Amino acid sequence: MTAEVARQMRESGVVPKLAVVLVGEDAASAVYVANKARQAERIGFASLQVRLPARTSSAELSAVIQRLNNDASVHGILVQLPLPPHLSAEAVACEIAPEKDVDGFHEVNVGRMTIRSSRSAFVPCTPLGCMHLIHRAIGQELKGLNAVVVGKSNIVGRPMATLLMHAECTVSVAHIHTRNIEQLCRTADILVVAAGSPGLVRGHWIKPGAVVIDVGINRLAGEAGAYRLAGDVAYDEAVEVASFITPVPGGVGPMTIAMLMKNTYVAALRAKRADSQRHVGVQPRSYG
Ligand code: GUN
């Protein structure tokens, strides 16, 4: 997937630039941000990291985002989540120019994706990556399959359910208040788990032959201050029952980064097209 983006980039001559903003000292976020920047540079993108202290005010963060919005050399902007509690992720997402919102969290992109608008949206990277994995396991046709999404976050659960509905699946969303969650999961031909709860989904919750996508990345304390990563699915049990299951780490994570690269490349390509249209006198599209 990333190799395909790199090839398209070489052919088009467009060099995308991704700006990643990290607020605070969250250790896991620092690792994710470093991975994103490393991958961007590895495939030949330009990248920019902005690190801000945890005490950064919303006005200060807005000023940084406005500067990046106005910088024509930057094509994609990502503010790593979670943010410190005094900052609103939803408000911050809506300050990023929609055409640079490679996370797909701005309400314009959420709206376009939800109504399947022909004016193409940026789709959040993790659900997009999960859809690629599901198609890899099952093929293009998902019509009529039962899909269960565990978790209803804005980053994964909600957009994931929307994409599965667009693929004509019958979709259920389970969450903390769901009754008989085990029984519901057992109806799933496609089970996507993004609950943030290590080992929540056990082997006997899974329908034999199901496709299981584990989005959870939980850091569990190990010995001597070390930690290990665990998914939301009890992998050793599930692997005996599922026809396809993603490991943690190494399953969904690399796919999310690949989708981020794809979205950033698309943003750069659109910026180049908008620029050449401006030069021939076509009015740029407004978001007002
Ligand atoms: N934190 C966890 N996943 C994501 C993501 O996809 N985008 C951003 N910006 N922050 C995250």
TrEMBL record:
Residues 3-103 form the Tetrahydrofolate dehydrogenase/cyclohydrolase catalytic domain. One of its GO terms (cellular component) is cytosol. Pathway: One-carbon metabolism; tetrahydrofolate interconversion. NADP(+) binds at G151, K152, S153, I176, I217. The keyword Hydrolase applies. Keywords: Amino-acid biosynthesis, Histidine biosynthesis, Hydrolase, Methionine biosynthesis, Multifunctional enzyme, NADP, One-carbon metabolism, Oxidoreductase, Purine biosynthesis. Its EC number is 1.5.1.5, 3.5.4.9. Residues 124-270 form the Tetrahydrofolate dehydrogenase/cyclohydrolase NAD(P)-binding domain. It catalyses: (6R)-5,10-methylene-5,6,7,8-tetrahydrofolate + NADP(+) = (6R)-5,10-methenyltetrahydrofolate + NADPH; (6R)-5,10-methenyltetrahydrofolate + H2O = (6R)-10-formyltetrahydrofolate + H(+). PANTHER family: C-1-TETRAHYDROFOLATE SYNTHASE, CYTOPLASMIC (PTHR48099:SF5), C-1-TETRAHYDROFOLATE SYNTHASE, CYTOPLASMIC-RELATED (PTHR48099). Belongs to the tetrahydrofolate dehydrogenase/cyclohydrolase family. Catalyzes the oxidation of 5,10-methylenetetrahydrofolate to 5,10-methenyltetrahydrofolate and then the hydrolysis of 5,10-methenyltetrahydrofolate to 10-formyltetrahydrofolate. Homodimer. This is Bifunctional protein FolD. It comes from Bordetella flabilis. The lineage of its organism: Bacteria, Pseudomonadati, Pseudomonadota, Betaproteobacteria, Burkholderiales.
